[in-house]
Amino acid sequence: MNVRTIVANGILAAVYIVVTMLIQPFGFTNVQFRVSEILNHLIVFNKKYFFGIVLGVFLANFFFSPLGMYDLIFGVGQSVIALLTTMALMRYVKNIWVRMALNTIVFTFTMFIIAWELKLALDLPFLLTWLTAAAGEFITMAVGAPIMYGIHRRARFDQSIER
Amino acid sequence: MNKMMLGRYVPGNSMIHRMDPRAKLIVVFFYVGIVFLANNGLTYAILTAFTFALLFLSQVPLSFVLKGLKPILWIMLFTFLMHVFMTKEGYVLYQLGTFTIYEGGVKQGIFISLRFLLFILITTLLTLSTTPIEVTDAVESLFGPLKRFRVPVHELALMMSIALRFIPTLMEETEKIMKAQAARGVDFYGGPLGERMKAIVSLLVPLFIHSFKRAEELAIAMEARGYRGGEGRTKYRLLTWKWIDTCLLVSILILAVILFLLRS
Q: Are B29 and B119 part of one and the same domain?
């Protein structure tokens, strides 16, 4: 990994934390509306954002999550699995909008990991928790797609990390 | 930006503060696993005693700990009530029409809420007594062996330090952007969904452009100084494993054995 990628991903993780802190409605339990989740869409522009997003999730959970260690393991696990899945799908799909749609579906589906976590930690009913958590994730990511595209048109995510 | 408290670190010089962050991380991970071994009154009592002993040793004021617990109170209450109403075991405690509360439900509710409280306490204790940078060092050291499988451990630790360094800087920057956009009439806290989305875009575009610029500058500065990570690089902060860290690990192992033997 070259220095530029390391630095850009480190700063991206910082952006993730800042967005989590400043635009913080409610999240971290079974219905999750964390605005910073929209940054998950960065992966569709360039695979090199992978570590920045994962690290952002890790630090956000470390600092702010009431579920503590559980969210560190499961939250990071979910992000890694979902991002890797999207990265694999990206080989076959080139269109940005389709990629974002796929990413939304992947993240929504993998919320079962979070539901499983809440089942383990709090013994909440699995299916209901999955449904509520997935609904929150789906809304955030779906609303986030046009937002991220809007930002991409000016900030050029695909090139910013390459220069 | 001093008002911003990142993480919940409370400076101190207690035994827990001085422990090797690696030992603390291992113990917290282990604890989260063995919490599930407790399943009756006695095992829960032992686990609670162990946790409070650690809290006491850390000398962190109780008010800080309680402040960290505030956001989870309603989750605990919700979990408790859910188990009270859903579990139908044991004898009937109370009945009102179709509404029945069983003894098993109350017990289950108390145990699960307590378990939740305990692992929140132990994680809070970690964040209260360990700086984020110590955690970074510990993670780098613990995951070191993964380098063999080509996991970029050192690079990840560096990213984490950079992220920690830039959070306050970017916070300040974001507040500035928010004020600048608010002065132009952007409303970040209300309005219909479409307007709010536009508001977020107007905040994130400058934030991203600014961040990428910062990254660029930092990368150039590092390259100009010939930065090379990993192999052969020395460290400013060194982690030292002391006998007390071994004691902590042994104590949690003993706790696990006791819980295993006493569980029903």
A: yes
